[in-house]
Amino acid sequence: MATTRTALSRGALALYAVAAVTAAAAASSSFFLWARGASAGLAIAASLPPSLLLGIIALASRFLSNALPLRSASRSSIAIGHAGSAAAASGLWVLMWKSWVPALNQQFAAHLAPDYSLLFGLGVVLYIAAVAVHYLVLEIEALREAEDEVLRYRVLAREAELRAFKAQVDPHFLFNSLNAVASMCGSRPLEAREMAHRLADFFRLILRLGALERITLAEEIDLVQRYLAIEQVRFGERLTTHINVDEGAARCMVPPLLLQPLVENAVRHGVASMVEGGTIDITATLEDHMLRIVIDNPADPDRADARGEGIGIENARGRLSAVSEGRAMLQAAEAEGQFRVVIELPR
Amino acid sequence: MIRVVIVDDELPARELLREFLAADEDCEIVAECANGFEAVKAVAQHDPDLLLLDIQMPKLDGFEVLELLDRSPIVVFVTAHDEHALRAFEVHALDYLLKPLSHERFQQVMERVKRAAGHDRQPVAGLATSLRAKPLQRIVVRGEDGAIQVVPVSRLDYIEAADDAILLATSGTKLRKQQPLSEIASQLDPDRFVRIHRAYVVNIERIEKIELYAKDSRVAILRDGTRLPVSRSGYQRLKELL
Known about the structure:
A: 5-stranded mixed beta sheet, two-stranded antiparallel sheet, 7 strands, 13% strand, B: Rossmann fold, CATH 2.40.50.1020, 5-stranded parallel beta sheet, 31% helix, 33% strand
């Protein structure tokens, strides 16, 4: 869509440029002839063909402007290139005058002869003006493309956000947790009530944090701990967690819900895949302005479906690169029954 | 009396089933299992009437458990994943229960179970095998000593037909499984496994090269040096894929 629009406006602009330069040349030169004593009809008839020629040459100067862009070409090559072509264009325009006016009116041509140098100057001025307009158009186009680019990145970032948010709330986590609540209602009603509150608090926090641009790592870790506390009820002794976040790291800003889906992966595809369960290890350190977060968990190398994990990790990677303009890194690796995700985010 | 085995890897989920079953005086729990291995063992040992079976479990999932059973209790799936529900009927489970469990729905299902108990049932194992999710990701094998092995298909080098059974070749060892080659060939990912011969299905990632052996007869040489015959139609299938 965008390219079609640009192509159309380029064609239109080219026509306008020919028309504008032709009109300016015709108007100024016929006024000049009229001031020199030509009749109005003669002045217009004499000036139109050379003006049209200059208009077309001025349009062609667009190619030269394209070839000598303001941003990258050297100043001397721009100056020399356009000065040379201005002289050549204006020479052609004067030549046209010299051959066309005598054909029209011999007497007046003789009268006009001393003024060709003036016409030459006029040609140079109009040509340079056309070049200036070309550069202006080029700059406007570059600006618009840059804006489109920024817009495209914003849309991509927004899409990544939406995908990530959808990925947060795994409905099966809710169903299984509610089943645990239902189970405890009979024998342990107080614990059931406690679990219901934990679930409500967790979902409230997801909604609140998900609406923010950035949160501290401490807030994200709090969310993760609430999530793990709920899973703890379901998995019991099979799930243990170690969380170690140093003080500097806790104050760092991160996109919300960055770790939550990764920790959910660590439970669903990691600890839950092990008969005897295992430990989820989360450490975060800040060193030399680099925030480093590592999530470690055991995983059965023979587990059935590894597809869901890949999506979660791709989402996290997309969001990280959107918020850090590509400076952050996320690596996921699996070896000897351990799954490890490493995130590095410059502060 | 309906003799029941409960299988779920989460303790609260087992507790809830236990509570519901305790309220039903026609039922008796003979075993509680926290994973698929225990389930296969418990069914062999107790020969229950009813198996309440979770689907997502470590090591062996509910479908794999069914495949390994040599007895056929009535099966009711208990799961939070309702996309599994359809497949539950395909493997001829009697019914399914969605988490969080409702007592009312549980009672309805138990009524169905009681009506079905005593009637002859089709063995679930064969049906489970033929209607599993495709493509197959893991193959479960039960050895002669009863030990269960799980082989991810990515670890397979090739599969060889041996009478009415198959041999699964993985880095030098061969596991025997009672299943026709054509059946397993139809369940594997067709982009990764090719039937190169009447008696061989090969993992194409393991193929080093194909050599002409005699006129119209070729041989596939695997990375580990194994040589497998390639029939003319097998060669056609390979060419189409590569």
